[in-house]
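User: For documentation purposes, I need each entry recorded in a consistent format: the amino acid sequence on its own, followed directly by the corresponding structure tokens. There are two entries in this batch. Please keep commentary to a minimum and don't merge the entries.

Assistant: Recorded as requested. Entry 1:
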Amino acid sequence: MRVTISQVEADGKIILQESAGLAIVTIQRPRLKNAITSGMWRELAEIGRLIPENPKTRVVILRGSKDQFCSGSDLKEFNQMSINEAHEAFHLMEQAISTFEKLPLPTIAAINGPALGAGFVLSLACDLRVGTSKAKMGIPVGRLGITLNQMFVKRIADLIGGSRTMDLVYTGRLLDASECCQLGLVNYMVPDDEDVDHFTLRLAKKVMEQSPASLLAVKRSVAYNKPALSFPWDTGTASSIDANDFPEGVRSFVEKRKPNFKGRG
């Protein structure tokens, strides 16, 4: 078994374990609900590029440590960034998510807790999602002055439609496990008396019994039949930051108060 640990923060790691045809990627920063820093996004993208180089790998599992999946990007880190640095951080985020989205292998997200913001979108980059009763999903970017670019919006709208996507952003509400299942955001709901990792491993083994050629063909066909997912990164038209509202949104989050937004969109 090959284990790769990319430690980019004192308490944050991206771990890759490869064994018996499986590549298991773990986001490990439980103290901060597996919030991902810019350095961790960079390492996640690098691990995503590394996985296909192992010819023995058949299935990829993406999971979070403890009872979390990923609470999104580290907002306290954003509070220390300039606008240009924040733009670059969002670019790194998109690179990591798109790398997993384009993997030429079946990918499964094991969601045993909140998948929020960029963590929510990261889970949608996987082909299948396994959830538990602890799963929560949402994209509460309106509280932060984040203006979702086309790539992020499309990934959500492709699964739940435009109106429901707008509802999530307009209200900032989080979907519970039952709603996630009803909307097709979760393919499998694990019973409370069963471990999500064990269930996901059994599912992965079932996938590994199928023809790799058949799996890749359907993955390519599904991608082909979607409108193009590739947009140029353009800070003028596809920015993820409102220059007025974003700094205030992040400050209010760190200071634990309601934001006072003044942007006009």
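Entry 2:
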Amino acid sequence: MKYHRSSLFLAFLAISLVASSEASAAFKPRSLLVSNAQHEGIREDVTRYEISQRGGDAGSKSSLSTAMFNLVKGIVGVGVLSLPAGIASFGDHQSAIIPAVALIAVMGSFSGYNFSLIGRICAYTGASSYSDAWQKSVGESSAWIPATACSAKTFLAVLAYSMVLAETFQGIVNTMGIRAGRAQTLITLTATVLFPLCSMKNLASLAPFSIMGIIGMLFTVGVMVVRYLDGSYALPAGKFLESIGKLPVFGKKGASAALTPNAFILVCMLSTAFMAHFNAPKFYNELENNTIERFNTLVGTSFAVSIAFFSAAASLGFATFGSSSQGFILSNYSSKDALIGISRIAVAFSLIFTYPLVFVGCRDGFLSLLKVPKEKQTDSYLNKLTITLLAVITTAAIFMKDLSFVMSFGGATLGNALIYVFPALMFKGVVKSMGDSATAAMKNEARFVTFSLLLGVGVGIIGATMAVKSL
């Protein structure tokens, strides 16, 4: 049995590596992503040579390696721990992992393409942010649409953080022999830890702790590898089976089950998991010598690493628990498992110190939507808004226990809009504004992104419907 499990693990690893290498290859300089790198954009002051050779303006920039690390860190978050449930939404046999990894690779590659597309839009228009790119390509009158979507997406991200913290800290205190409910745990944590951190006026001191997120995820996936290979949760005699709430369940729905509508739940979860696109302008503008070719190298490598990481986490969790995989996979593991206990602490520690960074983005988004002038953003006003938002988020996190639903529904609606629909509309706007100066290749790509737009809408509608039905 151990030999069989080791063989399966090697197969999963091989599939993940092949998938990520194929995704990286899709971003090679000769791909569609850079075929237009030497064509002038809307900005009259940016020459063809400047876009393709010099990149952005001089100044404080990030090296390629630093940008890669930061982008991977931005993509790989706690959402990865919900992906096993995405596979369980359509399959219960380990062969379901094969199409799942294929979907991860396809969605990751497509997400990466659109991330790169946003960077190119910034190169053509001189935009400095997602909303700015929309204003300069589509129009100012409708700029509230992407701004609202970005704010709502950030709100869902903070909600997901609170949900994970509730699960994680409840597991930690239970491991310590303290019986505490989900609501009691999260309310106490929010009042005593999260509110003081979110009320800080300068969050610069918390930035170094964001690295703990990727370290915690790496450690957790490593523990998942160990527990899968040693059979601690394997039927019928795994040593932790007696101390878990839901036993692993495996059936006959394998690879072919990926052809059923339920597979759209995983697809939409991946839209949330790969979501980093509202920061694409920042990565493009801050990249040292930000030519299109270098930006595509950044995007291709970062998304390939993320694809491999997502594939490993999703495969290992599902291979261990099958259709019993919960929305937060660590909830499947025993509270008596010391290694998993350390993983919970690592995840909790990283979330606590990155929570304020995400929350402030959410709060700033609401301030922008409410059009609150700077002079009215006093400490008292900000504290009241912080309390209100935390109260709403905490209440929602107490009653919403299925992280996979938040991931899938958020991906089906906001994720698909920000990744597929909005970039397509912006690029089509760029090509239209360029008129006769747009090349045949750019016009052909504008037709391709129309397909991307329609696909995003279609997948979003089906995915949102299936996510609601799964409740």
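Summary note for entry 2:
Residues 144-175 form the longest helix (32 residues).
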